[in-house]
Design goal:
The chain has helices spanning 3-21, 43-59, 66-69, 72-77, 80-83, 110-116, 153-158, 161-166; strands spanning 25-26, 33-34, 37-40, 64-65, 89-91, 105-108, 122-123, 125-129, 132-137, 140-141, 170-172. By secondary structure, it is an alpha+beta fold. β8 (125-129) and β9 (132-137) form a beta hairpin. It starts with a helix and ends in a 5-residue tail after the last strand.
């Protein structure tokens, strides 16, 4: 790759980053839609953690087989993978020779237990792009507050990562302030 190609590539990456941090848009190369999205912890996620902690505590098993024991609403909502973004739960890895992608075995982390017990608060939302957490909101919530608000689709779609960082409502990962 020559210097001109490198300059052009870096310029495209900078433009793309600005686009996904703002209102989002289509990639000039692959035409893929992209946006850094803010995901707020909600009542279904909190309820999923509560169920997992209670079931885990009642059975005293190391891992909970959610597809086998989880209530239908929990399995269908599939919110445990999202709770991993806050470090509240963890999934047991599968064997290398497994025919399934995931084991279905979950357990709360120490942080998850503390949040469940009301001992700690967590960032109200995380910002994600391409399945990677980019940062967390500066607003924090306790578990009981997750049940106080209704889902607002317009608020989710209008949320901009760059505006949240500029106004101090979000902090990028690695930004120790």
């Amino acid at each position: 790759m020559n210097n001109l190609d490198l300059f052009f590539t870096n310029d495209l990456r900078t433009q793309w980053r600005k686009r996904i941090e703002g209102d989002g848009g289509y990639c000039p190369i692959c035409d893929k839609w992209g946006k850094i999205s803010g995901i707020r912890i909600n009542a279904t996620m909190a309820r999923s953690l509560i169920w997992l902690c209670r079931f885990h505590n009642d059975t005293a098993d190391t891992w909970v087989n959610v597809p086998l024991y989880g209530p239908r609403w929990l399995v269908q909502s599939n919110q445990l993978p999202t709770l991993r973004r806050w470090g509240l739960v963890e999934r047991c890895s599968t064997d290398d020779d497994s025919v399934t992608k995931h084991s279905g075995l979950w357990r709360p982390t120490a942080k998850g237990w503390d949040f469940y017990m009301g001992k700690i608060s967590i960032p109200e939302k995380f910002y994600s792009y391409n399945n990677t957490v980019e940062g967390y909101s500066t607003n924090e919530v306790r578990i009981h507050e997750c049940f106080a608000t209704d889902f607002d689709y317009q608020a989710v779609m209008s949320d901009s990562y760059s505006a949240s960082v500029l106004t101090g409502k979000a902090k990028p990962l690695g930004d120790d302030q």
